[in-house]
Design goal:
- The structure holds 2 protein chains of 2 kinds.
- Chain A has helices spanning 4-7, 10-14, 20-32, 34-54, 62-78, 82-101, 104-129, 141-147, 239-255; strands at 136-137, 167-176, 179-188, 191-199, 212-216, 219-226, 229-235.
- Chain A is an alpha+beta fold.
- Chain A has a 7-stranded antiparallel β-sheet with strand order 1-2-3-4-7-6-5, sandwiched between helices.
- The longest helix of chain A has 26 residues, at 104-129.
- In chain B, helix 3 packs across helix 4 (54-71) and helix 8 crosses helix 11.
- By secondary structure, chain B is an all-alpha fold.
- In chain B, 73% of the residues lie in helices and 0% in strands.
- The chains are: A alpha+beta, B mainly alpha.
């Protein structure tokens, strides 16, 4: 039995690049030739070892990842590509139609809402870029919540996260339109989300009282008002993840 | 003991999942960031393997993403996004100071010559039982870049020969012969290491 024609094809077989027509012949040969079978197994093990040795040998630092994401967002903002312009076109047209049809009062309210969200998004991004993103570092809600006592003119409940995929990182006092509020950081796998809790004063955040979900610059957000407080959840997690965290916060607020 | 067919099947399943995921993502043609950021860690790992330097790898990845973003409007829906990103990274690397040194050797060493017969006595069969991860990493680092990159694309990224061909801009026949030579060089490095250790 000659092995030469098969031996030349062992790499392709191990790499899964053997043509359909040759797989049967190769498998048959390997069943009957211990030498080639051992060689193929050896090559496969070598491939596995190489993969294990090379995989994640070098990992990008979190700072570099953040820098990269911010660069992409900045470039996308300053140099929108034609494809993206088309993607935004329906929204732009819709907004333009609103301007024509709806009263200017509504438009003013709409702009203020966008601006408010943009400001909170900037706060979230700036926090992510900070070396000390939170002032109180704790995964325990019973540590984070009391930390805000005396720093804010209101209090709020935090959800129990033990059986959820979310993790509390900590919190800090933030200021929005000259008013103090709480910013809480949560982790979900590699995603980070900010939860802003503010007093729902008239004109502070011009949102409707119901739940509003928005997507801006690939960030998802959800906001609602409950018990005189305005909650805004922002992050790069998926809309469904943002919704899940929001539900937990709403349940915690109601349980209090 | 796991059979060869089972091992091979597991590898194929993993690879078809990876390629399938890329096809799905290119299919919906989402934003550049949505498509590109899932490859970030792997591209960085590949860049670091090429440059062997953290700062140079960061610069390389940064430049790759910026070039890809600028060229995204010309990216054809349905083509392989992953191979496209790796191609940009690799071409960008070849224009760097470190890359220029290796680019000279890329086209000039007889890739199209048939690979020499495989060594019957494979060192990995002896070595693997006590091979440490570092041994393989050291051997990879010592390989010439043209061999290192093709082994990484095939074994680490589990690209098909066609994808590797697209990434490196070479025909499939050359992919196969270069891969064969790269693995032979890898085995020789490991054998030398084994002899040195004993």
């Amino acid at each position: 039995m000659t092995c030469d024609p098969w031996r030349d094809k062992l790499d392709a077989y191990v790499d899964g690049d053997t043509s359909q027509g040759e797989i049967a012949g190769m498998s048959e040969h390997l069943r009957t030739c211990p030498s080639c079978a051992a060689d193929a197994l050896s090559r496969l093990r070598m491939k596995r070892m190489t993969q294990a040795a090379a995989a994640a040998r070098y990992s990008p630092s979190p700072e570099f990842r953040l820098r990269m994401e911010k660069s992409l967002q900045k470039s996308a903002r300053t140099n929108p590509k034609p494809g993206w312009a088309f993607a935004w076109m329906p929204r732009l047209v819709a907004v333009a139609a609103l301007v024509l049809i709806v009263a200017s009062v509504f438009w003013t309210r709409h702009s203020a809402r966008e601006q408010a969200l943009a400001e909170l998004l900037d706060l979230h991004v700036a926090t992510m870029a900070s070396a000390n993103p939170v002032d109180v570092i704790s995964t325990d809600r019973h540590t984070v919540k009391p930390w805000f006592q005396g720093k804010l003119p209101f209090t709020f409940n935090l959800p129990e996260l033990q059986n959820s995929p979310f993790k509390l990182v900590g919190g800090r006092v933030m200021y929005f339109k000259h008013t103090a509020g709480a910013q809480l950081l949560f982790n979900l796998r590699n995603h980070q989300m900010s939860v802003f809790v503010l007093q729902d004063q008239a004109g502070l955040i011009p949102f409707d009282s119901g739940i509003t979900a928005t997507r801006e610059m690939a960030f998802n957000s959800e906001t609602w008002s409950e018990g005189g407080l305005r909650y805004v959840v922002i992050g790069d997690a998926s809309a469904s993840d943002i919704r899940e965290l929001s539900e937990l916060l709403r349940a915690a607020a109601r349980s209090g | 003991m796991t059979s060869l067919t089972e091992l091979r099947k597991r590898d194929e399943t993993h690879r078809s999942y990876t390629v399938g995921a890329v096809a799905d993502r290119t299919g919906d043609f989402g934003s550049f960031e949505e498509l590109a950021m899932p490859h970030f860690a792997k591209l960085y790992n590949f860049a670091h393997w090429l440059t062997q330097d953290r700062a140079a790898a960061e610069d390389l990845v940064q430049e790759t993403y910026m070039k890809a973003l600028r060229g995204f409007s010309s990216f054809q829906q349905g083509t392989n996004f992953r191979a496209w990103m790796y191609k940009i990274l690799r071409n960008t690397f070849l224009t760097t100071k470190a890359g220029l040194k290796v680019s000279v050797s890329l086209d000039s060493d007889g890739d199209d010559r048939p690979a020499e017969p495989a060594v019957t006595e494979t060192p990995e069969s002896v070595l693997l039982s006590r091979a440490e991860i570092e041994t393989i990493q050291n051997a990879l680092e010592k390989l010439p870049v043209k061999f290192r990159e093709i082994i990484l694309l095939c074994d680490l990224e589990e690209m098909s020969y066609q994808e590797i061909g697209q990434t490196l801009g070479i025909p499939i026949g050359t992919v196969m012969s270069r891969l064969s030579r790269a693995r032979k060089a890898m085995r020789e490095l490991l054998a030398a290491n084994l002899q040195g250790a004993s």
